Q: What sequence folds into this?
């Protein structure tokens, strides 16, 4: 009988995250990741382009989810309502892996290179949201501004969700941040 | 009589900007910049840490201006009003050098490394605004959210101001974007 083992990709990702956490991203080599996973470097490179991709491979799927949700939002939804539905879909996706998200955030916070990469990713998400809104007929600068503001809400909500003990669902923070945004803009 | 010449720093900056525009940031060396300016590499390094700093040396002054303006805003100002005063102070500062801003933006748009650096800078500005708001007694998450949203407005306004022909003052776009933000959040 063959002993069950997680797939190679999953084992490599687990080994990488453990090593990044223990000794830092910069000081971890692909050779060490492969060794920890009991696999070869060659197998690593069949699954990931480089050691950074272990942390960012989900970005494409996240972007597609945001775009699909904005485009599929009810015709009656305002730009911010459509963007909010997208953030909530992302919140549901993240909700399934809070432990991974926390671990990932600590690794990223410890490396300037990774922080830069993360900011680039967030900027692409803002732009993807704006493009999806334009497909719905939303004009600029409203489309661009809504994309940026939605990502600001996402960032704040995500930070709170990974920082607070026992935070419940990420979407609670998304909805709270939206309420706060209304408060901030209405107060003037 | 001594012929008037701009200071070494100004000459180096002009030479660098010209070369970045002509042949790209990546392909320009400090040796070329110094040669174009009629100065030595040693003089370059007395004024700038590296060739990237020519494009980013104003960031510190900008950050100080934003922080000072938020802290000095009238006690009655809401968080967003205080942040808006800061953006308008920045708009006045930029207004004096639109040509430089346009040239700089083209150079940055052409280089991934510089785009990453620019995003890091914007993230620091958002955090600096949030800290200044906290000094005024604004609590989180309002402080963090206002910082992020203000920088989103700044980004959109700046992009429009450098892209549109004959745009007038940058602060017109700042005020317009604020109005749009109110429209976006109120529409729900």
A:
């Amino acid at each position: 009988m063959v002993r069950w083992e997680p797939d190679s990709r999953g084992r490599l990702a687990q080994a990488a995250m453990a090593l990044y956490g223990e000794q830092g991203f910069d000081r971890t080599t692909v050779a060490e990741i492969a060794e920890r996973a009991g696999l070869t470097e060659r197998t690593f490179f069949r699954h990931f382009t480089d050691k950074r991709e272990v942390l960012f491979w989900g970005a494409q799927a996240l972007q597609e989810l945001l775009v699909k949700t904005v485009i599929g939002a009810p015709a009656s939804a305002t730009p911010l309502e459509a963007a909010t539905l997208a953030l909530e879909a992302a919140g549901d996706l993240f909700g399934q892996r809070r432990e991974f998200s926390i671990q990932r955030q600590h690794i990223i916070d410890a490396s300037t290179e990774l922080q830069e990469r993360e900011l680039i990713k967030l900027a692409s998400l803002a732009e993807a949201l704006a493009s999806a809104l334009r497909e719905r007929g939303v004009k600029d600068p409203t489309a661009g501004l809504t994309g940026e503001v939605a990502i600001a809400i996402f960032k704040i909500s995500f930070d709170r969700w990974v920082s607070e003990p026992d935070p419940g669902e990420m979407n609670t923070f998304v909805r709270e941040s939206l309420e706060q945004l209304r408060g901030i803009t209405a107060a003037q």
